[in-house]
Fold each of these.
Amino acid sequence: RRYVPAEGEPVVGVVLGRHGEGYRVDIGSAHDALLPLLAFEGATRRNKPNLVVGATVYARVSVANEMMDPELECFNSHTGKSEGYGELTHGFTFKCSLGLARRLLSAKAPVLSALGEQVPFEAAVGVNGRVWVNAGTPEKTILVVNAIKNSEYLDTKQSKQMVRELLGKQ
């Protein structure tokens, strides 16, 4: 299925190009999203972020309707703080089903909590089915990615067992 943007949803996207007032970002929907240059924490006309084509960003959908392209922002518009949004450097990005992405965003994602007890890592999960992971080393990053992908059809108990088995083989 294709992702349909809705206001307030977190997404992981890839910068496709830069134009006068911002960036074009692929978020996996029917239309590319727009990311204005001033949609970052502390951004001003003189102090703007410089993203390159191919950069990965974690953003929130700020405008989503059928008549125009979706618009993104990399900060919380209520507080003015980035709160984790912005460019994602290093790490690895992969695609998963929209259902798995929504389960990973829930507070009780068993695979993420089981992994977090054993392996230090960072993750950014977008409702659009893209996940970014950074665990420090390539080996640990691959382990975390494989555990997340394999957890799609497992329940809580099976997810925790799978993580124990993966970590036991290291």
Note: Strands lie at 10-19, 22-26, 33-36, 56-65, 68-73, 86-88, 92-95, 122-125, 130-134.
Amino acid sequence: MPKHQSSSSATGYNKHQSAKNSQLNAQSQGEYQDHRQQRAPYNRDSNRDNNKKKKKNDKEPAEYRLPKGLSKCKNEIRSLNRLLSSSQLMPSTKRLELERRLKALTLRQTQLSSSKVDKTNASRYHGVKFIERKKILRRLAQIDKKPEEQQVEEVKQEKKSLLVDLNYTSYYPDQV
């Protein structure tokens, strides 16, 4: 027998192996409970609904949503016009749905194109509006500094017209 082997390992008996064997025997008999068995088992299907990210417009189906962009809206209008003008036979309910969708899309297209024009005008004339507003506010401050005894009908009319001009420069075209 070599020097490095002990007599217990030569016979096949080891204290560590005997402890493992006793745990396995107890586990098979139901006496030993591992700490991992105390937790409820992970159910992948139950957590699947909780982990899904919800979409913004989850309330309505995708076929009823209108496109956000102008080009997508134009493309869909073009395809619906082609579909309705074709000689394909389709049920009247389907044709009615498509016509309603076409009306909604044309309304959406006008809204998007007008908002685009408003945005370009607002950015183009922002500086002009700012300077005009400053002029009007300066003139109103000059009128307010004068004592009220000196304010005659002409000054009141001028103040009124300046306030109208201020509202015009502040709110036209609509701020986008």
Note: The two ends are 94 Å apart (CA to CA).
Amino acid sequence: AHLAPFLPGHPALGASTQGPVSAAPYGSAGVLPVTWAYVKLLGAHGMTQASKAAILNANYMAARLRDHYSVLFANEHGMCAHEFILDTRVFAKSADVHAIDVAKRLQDYGFHPPTMSWPVPNTIMVEPTESESKEEMDRFCDALIAIRNEIREIEDGAQPRDNNLLVNAPHTIANVSADSWSRPYSRERAAYPLPTLRDRKFWPSVSRVDDAYGDLNLICSCPPIENYE
């Protein structure tokens, strides 16, 4: 009880000595009714079908990628549950490529990177949902297979280990439209690694940032506090 005066407050809830920590007075409690409504709408049969679809999707993608990446934690039949883990640790030695490099390069292919380094460091977890179409899953697999071929170029010496398509990813419009270009690969390979990207291209807004530094250091990009006085 002696800590009650220090709990976050909110203007909508009346006077408080402390300010709010989020726009919603009750934080993320609203996610619980959303989950409940989803379960009620699907019902027992729908939940079963959704689970089956998610497991089928994960195993389909794992089967497509198994010839290019090692898949961790599969059972004796090579099957996984609703998610699977791609082991990218071997590329650290063979090409100086890490999971973060694969994740950043995926942005050039138009994908938000999936979960990285959990539960195994320097790996990528792929978790397709029951709602993903086969077309979208194939597009994601095609991107990862193409990235594996780019890693192979580094392993074979066709690209330098410290200046290549992966360690420089993602590539922004500002990067590829700059007057100078000194990288050992073409602008086209940087921005359009697959022909399909010319029809539908998502451009990353920023190039490579130091994620670990950002996680450990608070960086405020807002106007100075004097602007609010």
Note: The chain has a mean pLDDT of 92.
Amino acid sequence: MDDLCASIKDGRYREQHARIHATGFTNVFYVVEGNDPDAVSRLGEAAVSSALSRIQVIEGFHLKQPPSFEATLRLLRQLTESLSDVLECVYAIPDSLIGLKGFQELKRGIRARFPQAHLAISFDAYDVVSNKSGSLSVGEVYLRMLMTLRGVSADKALSIAGSYPTPQLLIDALEADGGVKAVDELVVDGSCRKIGPVLSKRLAEFWTANSF
């Protein structure tokens, strides 16, 4: 539970879900082990409840909440035994097809023609498609870098990247005279809101720092 709360706070929560969906896996089990009242209290019960609901309703994962490490081991053993009994007709997808743009469509097409077949990928292929940056474009990595900073939502990141398409252009702008003010005045796409002085200062401190 403490790791879930931390991942919600630092943004890993949504990133993890995106990487899981990128694998094309179905029947995903999302395990939240134990209970940490202090972590829940710090983040807020409403935020935690909303995240747990999203896991099931929006993401479509099977949420399991074992109370202890031992209960988690029992759950994993039961799942392994169930899979051993059920998965008799398993076919491996060649690694060369993994990660291609049409990969998800390919899987859907195979499932439609052979509904009884279970599709599998090698661990190396899984490592590629679930990697944080392995299957992302340069632009997507840049957007994710922007959103690691507290206060930068997806729409703000898109607005910043629209005006400064590369990290170097953003850094040059922030280091120039009046550059922070220019970023401050950026209007967030689809709204009347601006980036604002607090966030523009935070961007400057982060992107122009000589060390961390």
Note: The mean pLDDT is 80.
